[in-house]
Amino acid sequence: MRDETGFEEYVAARWSTFSRLALLLTASETAAQDLVQVTLEKAYVAWPRISAMEAPDAYVRRIMVNTLISTRRRAWQRHEVPSADPPDTGTPSPEQVLVDRELLWPLVCALPPRQRAVVVLRYYEDLSEREIADVLGCSAGTVKSTAHDAMQALRRSVAAIPTTGGVQR
């Protein structure tokens, strides 16, 4: 039998955390809401197993990252190109304002999904390499090399930003 009350309590307690992670992973409030919805649908189906786990948050984060990577892979296969100028969705949320203020955020968003996931989980969610490896289903060494590749790409991107009078534009 499904513990619906337990799932509802879990979602209520963790909603903001998962919404923040989804926003960091997608860089779009609408896409983040969709990602949280799909993630929680998948978690609901597996809730009897997830609720018995020692670290259910890690498993749900893994569902989220895998869903994002899978969605992006399917979009790439269909050759979808996201709009460079999305429609105005109204007043931004506090989370969106925080993300928009980050100087490096556009560069992080340009990383491939797996590299972006490692950067977000490591530097925004403050997970250890071992925890990231568990979320992504890979070794800690793979996390280290992916983080290294992502940081190299970010350094190249920062170096390519034109400067005028010491102020970056």
UniProtKB/TrEMBL annotation:
- Domain of life of the organism in this record? Bacteria
Q: Which UniProt keywords apply?
A: DNA-binding, Sigma factor, Transcription, Transcription regulation
Q: Gene3D superfamilies given for it?
A: 1.10.1740.10, Winged helix-like DNA-binding domain superfamily/Winged helix DNA-binding domain
GO MF annotation terms: DNA binding; sigma factor activity
BP GO annotations: DNA-templated transcription initiation
Q: Where is the RNA polymerase sigma factor 70 region 4 type domain?
A: 107-154
Asked if the keyword Transcription regulation belongs to this entry, the reply reads: yes
In what residue span(s) does the RNA polymerase sigma-70 region domain sit? 20-76
In the record, the note on similarity to other proteins reads: Belongs to the sigma-70 factor family. ECF subfamily.
What is the name of the protein in this document? SigE family RNA polymerase sigma factor
Q: Which organism is it from?
A: Nocardioides euryhalodurans
Organism classification, top ranks?
Answer: Bacteria, Bacillati, Actinomycetota, Actinomycetes, Propionibacteriales
